[in-house]
């Protein structure tokens, strides 16, 4: 199922839709000449409530949504307060508000909306407007807390997934480094032990071949040839094992991005890229990790493209997503920390804007 469709069918949205249907059913007691207006306003309210799942990259939509929803609810109350169901829309709006904004801002907005609700009831001549407002305020508080705890749990889950991805990526680098160290140890043992003894055997066979008593024996010549070939083979194996292929950055970076539902990672590593320094590999890992987090949190991107190339003795990293950069580039804690980490590894970092309007990160590190 598409990611946006899953977001649309999440429990809070389904509960909101069920509530809107119940409110619409109550409109049958409304005067006939007001019914078309009420249905149109309720439909607009439903569109505002759900459209954010289809317009995730439109930065201006969220403030418009959170402003129009209570205005529509209060308008429905003003049109005909008798059914007493339209105030439920303020409860739904409170849940949406608490899920999108900090609790302090949500509290101030809800208080302002409830004051307007009280004025509407008072002007209509309601006998106990304050009591009605307090009753609905209790439901609003309950909805706000439920939404806030749900969002907090989701953020904690995402944070746990990022920490787990960090551990998986670091473990991949450590395992690769341990394999390289073990391969180097075995290469040294072959060179120092087997190579030394084969050299001694070759010299002894050469001495036997020089003795007239054994010079004519074919076994000596065969043994001498085999020892020479075996010594050459061992030297080739040792050289191949000493050739450091570098740390497996591809596996580590994919492990870093795998637990994140969005954005997905598109990785391109040139064949010439070979990183042997764990500090450089760690800097690349953290750079891409921060880029993935920023793309998901600020650019609402679906894809992050990461490319690694070598130019001389420098490793070039470029990161670009398909999101939209809103306004000028401001280096917050994430981007500043990224720059500091790259600088500590002996590299440099530059931020820019791509042709499609997204953030582009160019970094250079010692290979």
TrEMBL record:
Entry annotated with the keyword NAD: no
Entry's Gene Ontology molecular function annotations: kinase activity
Pfam family, one: HATPase_c
CDD domains in UniProt: HATPase_UhpB-NarQ-NarX-like
InterPro entries named in the record: HATPase_C_sf, HATPase_dom, Sensor_HK_TwoCompSys, Sig_transdc_His_kin_sub3_dim/P
Domain of life: Bacteria
UniProt entry tagged with the keyword Transferase: yes
UniProt keyword list: Kinase, Membrane, Transferase, Transmembrane, Transmembrane helix, Two-component regulatory system
Regions crossing the membrane: 12-29, 35-52, 59-79, 91-121, 128-151
Domain named Histidine kinase/HSP90-like ATPase: residues: 282-357
Domain Signal transduction histidine kinase subgroup 3 dimerisation and phosphoacceptor: 182-244
Full protein name: Histidine kinase
